[in-house]
Write a structure and sequence with these properties.
- Helix content is 42%, strand content 10%.
- With 687 residues, it is an alpha+beta fold.
- It has a domain at 118-292: Orthogonal Bundle (Penicillin binding protein transpeptidase fold).
- The protein has a five-stranded mixed β-sheet, covered by helices on one side.
- This is Penicillin-binding protein, 1A family.
Length: 687
């Protein structure tokens, strides 16, 4: 009987089929291949981890370095102005200079011409500048990395700097925003500014600003200004040879200015034409024709003649007052044109006649009226040949011309002209000053020692008052180049000074102890008639030296002119001064004054080559006399109105003074006879 009862939950499931037999359990085995994989992974993990750590370290170091560089060098980098302002940024004003009488001396300053674009110029014009400054301008970024490595390699092989790597954009950044100082800060800021410029300007725009702002010498700024100045035409009319010649100038615009050194500029333009030919910008025929086409210069500006040194000095002073973005200016100077020309002619003729025999090639003269106004300033024999202003920029040893300041300090400490000192061998530590020509005169008065410029007594007086007192008095008199406590050699003028400060220091004696700041500019105004600045009158009397002491000094220095080392300077009027000669006859000076003018003269050589034993009483005194005769031609003879009588010694005189004075007079008479017979002057160059 078949059971048909349906299955229930309790019904057991059908029996599962028998499982396949399992193999016997095998023992555990270590597979060597997975082990090697895991070891390699560990190695790579260490390598990658180290590499990542190195990258992080380098990144942190770079970030730290960048932070240091930013804060030390780049934080104060100038910001870019708006685009249009770049064409006028730091534009120097044009200046019309007038003499003390209001007559125009010269018009100086930038000649900008009109603004030009690259599109309106013949292609070779822009190419000439690229050939001169940056041949890969359109191929590289703000910094030419390839050019940097190339320049580094060339300079390394040469062992010196023979090639730079600044791009045209870098040069523009430097010219617009930075100083020309060759320091790392300026170079880094230049790179940053170049990058910023190329972020906001196209290459063509950068080139246009460069062409419109670059300096070409001769007062010409911008391509059109240079084309008008040198060739009398617009920039769009330039020939290839003219373009190459102008492109040669920005590298050294003052030295290569076409009105100053045409031949050197032409030599550089030939290299530029060769570069253009090598780049394929011009053909061989065009290069040849340009080489044969020597540009003809139009009349270049106004001849400044003997006023060049004055205008250089006045331009710098005027821009300080008016600011770099000032409008065009009118500057009234204190210069007397007749005295300026007389000074220039005197120096030129004297050096031409006496220079070859005396071994003198340069001279300078500076003259102040009694109110401190500079009436004449001659910085050399020829401004066109050498614009270096030796009256202001050169610092040389004054030699014995400095002795009046030593004597002035001694007088301030109670020394009188009649006091006796002995001219004899002296030694202060390792320093043993000697007199010129050797020999000693024995006892003499302080006044006689100044008249004859006796070194040993000047050194004794310097020792008595001390270097600190001499330095302090010199600073009171306006001579700022001395250290606070000069050593004893200051008594013989061993510390360098310039002619302007030395002459101004003598003016304190001229004015009876009152100091005035020398000045060259009377007033500054705009060409529209608006006054910007005027020289202020002294707010109050600035007395830096006692009037009685000044009287003593002036009377002693008068005898230097009438009886002492400066007799060649005497010209029939009350005058006082002091001669000076530096070590090994490298410099010779005479600074002297009348009630109306104080004038200083220096002669020597720029390379400090010794002269043929020229002393201050020779050429400098003769130049001074000729100039002062002309300066006083229309003036009445007058004496110093403030002079006081010489003081009378309050103490009982030394009974030996009479003997000393008689003996000193005999020495002086013998020295005078020797000098008249042709013996060398008594003035001693610094040892």
């Amino acid at each position: 009987m078949t059971d048909s009862t349906p299955p229930t939950d309790e019904t057991p499931p059908p029996e599962a089929p028998a499982a396949a037999p399992q193999p016997a359990e095998q023992p555990l085995r270590l597979d060597p291949r997975p082990a090697r994989a895991r070891g390699a992974w560990r190695v790579w993990a260490w390598v990658l981890g180290g590499l990542l750590a190195a990258i992080v370290a380098v990144a942190l170091a770079a970030a730290g370095g960048a932070y240091v560089v930013w804060n030390k060098y780049l934080k104060d980098t100038p910001q870019l102005p708006p685009r249009e302002a770049l064409f006028a940024l730091n534009r120097a004003p044009a200046i019309r200079f007038e003499d003390r009488y209001g007559q125009v001396i010269a018009t100086r300053g930038p000649r900008y011409g009109r603004r030009v674009t690259v599109d309106e110029l013949p292609p070779y014009v822009a190419q000439a500048f690229l050939a001169a400054e940056d041949r890969r301008f359109y191929q590289h970024g703000p910094i030419d990395v390839q050019g940097v490595f190339r320049a580094a390699w060339i300079n390394w092989r040469a062992g010196r700097t023979v090639q730079g790597a600044s791009t045209l954009t870098q040069q523009l950044a430097k010219g617009l925003f930075l100083s020309p100082d060759r320091v790392i800060k300026r170079k880094l800021q230049e790179m940053l500014l170049a990058y910023r410029l190329e972020q906001v300007l196209t290459k063509d725009e950068i080139l246009e600003i460069y062409l419109n702002r670059i300096y070409f010498g001769g007062g010409a700024y911008g391509l059109d200004g240079a084309a008008q100045t040198y060739f009398g035409k617009s920039a769009s009319q330039l020939t290839l040879s003219e373009a190459a010649l102008l492109a040669s100038l920005p590298k050294a615009p003052t030295r290569l200015a076409l009105n100053r050194d045409m031949e050197r500029a032409l030599a550089r333009s030939r290299l530029i034409l060769a570069n253009m030919r090598a780049k394929g910008w011009i053909t061989a025929r065009e290069e040849r024709e340009a080489l044969e086409d020597r540009p003809f210069l139009s009349s270049v500006g106004q001849d400044e003649g003997d006023f060049g040194w004055v205008l250089d000095y006045a331009t710098a002073e005027a821009v300080k007052v008016a600011g770099p973005n000032a409008p065009d200016l009118v500057v009234r100077l204190t210069i007397d044109p007749l005295l300026q020309r007389e000074a220039a002619e005197t120096i030129r003729q004297t050096i031409a006649v006496d220079g070859p025999v005396s071994g003198v090639s340069q001279a300078a003269l500076l003259s102040l009226s009694s109110d401190g106004a500079i009436r004449a300033m001659i910085g050399g024999t020829d401004y066109v040949e050498s614009p270096f202003n030796r009256a202001v920029q050169a610092r040389r040893q004054p030699g014995s011309t400095f002795k009046p300041f030593v004597y002035a300090a001694a007088v301030e400490h109670g020394v009188l002209p009649t006091d006796i000192r002995v001219d004899e061998p002296v030694k202060f530590g390792d320093w043993a000053p000697e007199n010129y020509g050797g020999g000693y005169r024995g006892p003499m008065t302080v006044e006689q020692a100044l008249m004859t410029s006796t070194n040993t007594i000047a050194a004794q007086l310097g020792s008595e008052v001390g270097g600190a007192a001499i330095g302090e008095l010199a600073r009171r008199f306006g001579i700022s180049s001395l250290p606070e406590t000069p050593d004893l050699s200051v008594a013989l003028g061993s510390y360098e000074v310039n002619l302007l400060q030395l002459t101004a220091g003598f003016q304190v004696f001229q004015l009876g102890g009152i100091r005035l700041e020398p000045y060259l500019i009377e007033s500054i105004g705009t060409q529209g008639g608006q006054e910007i600045w005027a020289h202020p009158p002294p707010a109050a009397e600035r007395r830096v030296y006692d009037q009685g002491h000044a009287s003593i000094m002036v009377r002693m220095m008068e005898k230097v002119v009438t009886e002492g080392t400066a007799r060649r300077a005497e010209f029939g009027r009350p005058a006082a001064g002091k001669t000076g000669t530096s070590q090994n006859w490298r410099d010779a000076w005479f600074v002297g004054f009348t009630p109306d003018y104080v004038t200083g003269v220096w002669v020597g050589n720029d390379d400090e080559r010794p002269m043929n034993k020229v002393v201050g009483g020779d050429i400098p005194a003769a130049v001074w006399r000729r100039f002062m005769v002309a300066a006083h031609a229309s003036l009445a003879v007058s004496d110093f109105p403030w002079l006081l009588d010489d003081p009378v010694a309050e103490t009982k005189p030394d009974p030996r003074n009479g003997f000393y004075e008689t003996l000193a007079a005999e020495f002086a008479r013998t020295a005078s006879e020797r000098e008249d017979a042709g013996a060398p002057a008594t003035e001693e160059p610094v040892n």
